[in-house]
Amino acid sequence: MVKKSGRGSLVAVGGGESSDVTEDSIKIFEKFIELAGGENARIVLMTVATDEPKAAEKRYAKIFKRLKFKNFESLNIEDRAESFDEPILEAVRQASGLYFTGGDQLHVTALAGGTPLHELITEKFNNGLTVGGTSAGAMMMSSVTLVSGLSDCAPRLGSVEVVPGINLLKNSVIDTHFSQRGRYGRLLSATAHNPQIIGFGIDERTAMVIENGSFEVVGEGAVTVIDAGNPRHTNLPYIKSDESIGIFDVRLHVLPEGYRYDLERREPVAQTFEKLTAAAANED
Question: What is the pTM of this model?
Fold first, then answer.
């Protein structure tokens, strides 16, 4: 088992990376494996979110084979009692990286939240474990987890449902398939209802790679940051359910590949002039 000191890393993916494998998808998995220990990593594929664990295992096995990485196993949980079982806990103890597949994020929070498995993951993450996840497997990482909400609509009171997340990324809510499914309104609704948290919308085949109090964007799309932490006005106390939300002074940032975000300062970090001009030259 590879051991790292200090708090672990997160690789939160916006979905689509296993069903439509592109060079950007491969780049994300290479980064995940690197953070988990490289060729010495021990990866556990967590299929708890999906109703089709065998199919998910086959998809990811193909990706790992393409990367010539063999040291991984799959772990599925179908009943909350299994999150107390010693064989499952031991498999997680021996892992240097966990990767949660997509599916239903409520499966993860309901089957593992508050259990010895959740406690073990938190303990290991605080001591260097790398945790990756896609779609539902990314959404469960935050302190607040979106479990339902309308896409392609304006922010409305009561239009989203949230539950406590696994809380590996504190003071946050994550949404996925973000641009592809028009989820600006529902993420803004979630942050307007919970202004103490920051919203992160991750596009497909795109990842937030979170290390040391900041994240970098990797992949073909962007990460949209919605920060409603200090609004000068909101009409939330005065409207009825399903009425449109009014809110002022929301900060919005759109970060493509290579851009960073300081989670402690709640500020984006622009690329340098040299990197921007080099990227433009490569495209030409």
Answer: 0.91
